[in-house]
Design brief:
Rossmann fold, 288 residues, 9 helices, elongated, 5-stranded parallel sheet, 11 strands, alpha/beta
């Protein structure tokens, strides 16, 4: 079985490792490139807590500010893990969406105790600031990073889409999903009739639902517990991937071999990152 991961490198690699541990081959196709805004202003005077709606916000804040003593509330477990890795010790996850994060902040914090600082990107999904301000909180939102959209799908990904070398595509945000749809159309709309779309939310699924997939699945809980089992046990048993799965076998240099699949996969030099020779430095950094 082979899965296309559309997340940028920093977020895609841990997921790729988790999937490969389950015997699933992956191809990484970053659709967004994250760039920290070095001239962003971070003013923390009077701030009682930080709000993070993505792991990218965590990484951008950590790169621009040395403060780690404030409470950090995150939208999900992925951003919570990123916060802990960045050195925050008071971290709590809303395990949901922007609305869940707002509810968590209201439950844990008092409006009179200080300002809430939202580490955001130039494009945001949902208006956390307006939601909380409507409840009497003061929110200071700072744009700390921007996401650059990929210009085209890589030749490796296009060949595998056209020749049946991809079984499922993982999509984690509405913006990533809409980008995939735009690039797919620009590439001539190769058939997706034998490919499953695994989406983090209904909002993501709405962006790609009409592309002619074999099926569209929506996660009903954290992707770590839903998408991995879904990928491991495909719901389309007539597909060749249900009969043949890659089995990664690490060598001394961590190279991997794969069983020859029953459909053509024209990539003489296999790389986990689409469009890159093994060892090439990636151009994308994070996912928003």
């Amino acid at each position: 079985m082979r899965i296309l991961i559309t997340r940028p490198i920093d977020d895609a690699r841990p997921l790729a490792d988790a999937l490969e541990e389950r015997g699933i081959e992956v191809l990484i196709e970053p659709l967004l490139e994250i760039r920290h805004l070095e001239d962003a202003e971070i003013v923390l005077q009077g701030v009682q807590a930080l709000l993070f709606t993505s792991a990218n916000g965590v990484r951008a804040f950590a790169a621009l500010s040395p403060r780690r003593d404030l409470k950090a509330f995150t939208v999900g477990d992925g951003s919570a893990e990123a916060a802990r890795q960045a050195g925050f010790t008071q971290v709590e996850s809303a395990k949901g969406d922007v609305e869940a994060l707002a509810a968590l902040a209201v439950d844990r914090l008092k409006a009179e105790d200080g300002i809430l600082f939202h580490a955001a990107g130039t494009v945001t999904a949902g208006d956390l600031k307006a939601r909380l301000e409507g409840l009497g909180y003061q929110v200071r939102r700072a744009q700390l990073y921007e996401a650059k959209i990929a210009g085209a799908l890589s030749p490796e990904t296009l060949m595998n889409l056209n020749l049946g070398g991809i079984d499922a595509v993982l999509l984690f945000s509405p913006r990533t999903a809409s980008t995939f749809a735009d690039l797919w159309r620009a590439a001539g709309s190769p058939s997706l009739a034998r490919i499953q779309a695994l989406c983090l939310s209904a909002a993501v699924a709405r962006e790609i639902g009409n592309l002619g997939w074999a099926g569209v699945e929506i996660a009903d809980r954290c992707w770590r517990w839903w998408m991995l089992p879904a990928a491991k046990e495909p719901k389309w048993p007539d597909h060749p991937s249900a009969r043949t799965r890659a089995r990664p076998l690490p060598t001394g240099r961590q190279k991997r071999r794969q069983r020859k699949p029953p459909w053509p996969m024209p990539h003489a030099k296999r790389s986990r990152v689409a469009g890159r020779a093994p060892g090439a430095a990636p151009s994308c950094s994070t996912w928003c």
